[in-house]
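---------- Forwarded message ----------

FYI, see the SecDF P1 head subdomain domain-containing protein record below. Original note from H. follows.
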Amino acid sequence: MQIILILVGVLLIDLNNNLTDCSADQVVLETGWYHSNSDRNGEMRVFEYLNETMYVNPTPIVTVENFERLEINETSWAKGEFMLAIWLDKEGTKKWSDATEFAMNNRTNLVFILDNKIINAPMVFAKMTNGATAITRKDLSKKDLEEIKGKLER
């Protein structure tokens, strides 16, 4: 199964995250959290994520520069499922709080981009003010999260 990522050009990615074709005109988004939008209002980048088209605002909310600590933990809601917890610096905490409030009020997803691919795109149901965020997806194993953590720590 393959996912098509459309930016300025087309980037074809298989589920093992191997690049199989790449356009030289592609715009690479910095690693971090972004706002999504359900339509093409404003400047957006188009991604395919879990068989759904997502429009992503190319201005990051927070980037790896705002990450203070990363930790892999078992989730409290499902035995055997893991999450990558991310603690943000003071600036990132304020931006994240504003972004989660906006996403909650506008019923939009927040999108985590790594290697110019969507890794996570959760819906937000509450304003988050404690400076913590997480990557959680049932299909990501502890090993997958360890690989992501390793990339973020470089």
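H. also flagged this: The longest strand covers residues 67-74.
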